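S.,

Sequence below, as promised.
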Amino acid sequence: MSQTVDETLASVTVLTRTEIEKSQARDITQLLDGIQGLSMSNNGGLGKTTSIRLRGTNSNQVLVLIDGVRIGSATLGTVSFQDIPLAQVERIEIVRGPRSQLYGADAMGGVIQIFTKRVQSGTQINADAEYGSHNTRRLALGVNGSQHNLEYGFNLSDLHTDGFSALKNNNPDDDGYDNRAFSGHLGYRFSNGLKLTVSALRAKGENEYDSAWGPANFYDSESIQQSLNGKLEYSPNDIWDISLSVGESRDEMTSYVNDVFNSFFNTKRRQFTWQNDVALGEESILTFGFDYLRDEVAGTSNYSVNERDNKAVFAQYQREFGRNDISIGLRHDDNESFGTYNTGSISLGRELTETLRLVASYGTGFRAPTFNDLYYQDPWGSNGNPNLTPEESESLELSLRGKPSWGRWNINLFRTDIDDLIDWVEVAPFTYQPQNIGRARINGMEAGVTTELAGWEISGNLTLLDPRNRITGKQLTDRSKRSLRIDIDRAFGRTEVGATFNARSHSFSDTDNTLLTDGFGTLDLRVAQHLTSEWTLRGQISNLFDRDYETIRTYNTGGRELFVSLHYVPK
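The prediction came back faster than expected:
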């Protein structure tokens, strides 16, 4: 029983395949950077480590799902966004604010759901080819269809780039990247209404990178991101929807130095979810279920424990009454590493007029310590700490949303307090151990507007943050206080033109706020020419004014870049 963006009480942004193609974004970093509450940082180009900040929280405090399956490294606690090919993505949903009451650990800042390619009806074939700066080449081919009771899809993509030198004042050679990916799905709805769907995504990356620890050495790595999911959906009657899903994800990384094996770290996550949605009359929905997650890790480093289970029960009640809405959610997790944990949320909505809505919400969240935090064993003495407890958060939000005849707008005010932050501290000379010592407060405002003016589609996103360490009063690392993104697009017959302006203020790369990363602003231009009803030629200039900027201190960006692509979709 899904809800639209207008119906939900959560702060949500949805990016469809149409919007992805219109943006001409080359990867998830370019697509998402500057969206309300969200900033992306990259360590030197395509395929390099990419970090996400959602409402000022850390990358490991944001939960990411692919087709409903939790992904990411259980050793680092982060997701390799750089290895997820945008060519395989149909839709991305960004839910801002804590969602631990439904998803459990790591959903403190929010949840990002990535859905692989689908079509609603008929059969669609698509083929894409692109070439651009740094000898970047892309190919993509897909067949997706939905006929009668059968859904199917098969998609391939291939990417190569020579790249550029990732790290400043380091080995000046180009650091390239290759990515080959596959996604597919098969679904069937039986005569009794039962629907069975299986889906898969697998992406293999080969990456060259720089390291400050050995400027003269050659570093490269091989990575695998994989997500498998099987889902059974059934409605025994008009008011009850049941879904059972089983999934597995893998995050694998093997690194080499001068073409000699150096290390590997692998994560395997298996999960099972049973969810029930029951309509209690025409205006109420009760959601409840059971969740199971098993994490397993392996690597060249030793771990005193290399697997753990998490069991959880959850429930959410949603009701409309007159002009009011309410949503209450509770979840109980039982993890064999840190015991039991309870989270919850409550949201209240009031329709002030037909075009104006006020929403207030409160939610709690937590982040589970990673295997590195708990069980890492270093022969030199820097070990994990099995006595760590989860990081905890409390969030408040007040949102005003309007949908007048000329478009949509919103203003969100929020505060997030985080306690028991995990930090690796020096317990002896050159010996470190993680401890629960940190406290943070993030105050923020998001504002967004979409409208049409003189034929131009205009979208603006503004985020203001005050992310503070509550102990030292310093600004949290790698967070900008201000960010702005403006997108404009217009069609002139068969020709479409557009531009994106993206800017952010300075940030600091150290806890003492002495190492400054300057703010910046970039302008991208794009054009698309529909040659026929089936063929489209697209072109983009990124960073038109060739700004020299950094999203992570000392790491290069690509300068001015030009890309041209040809797209074929037979009718």
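The longest strand covers residues 431-453.

Coffee later?
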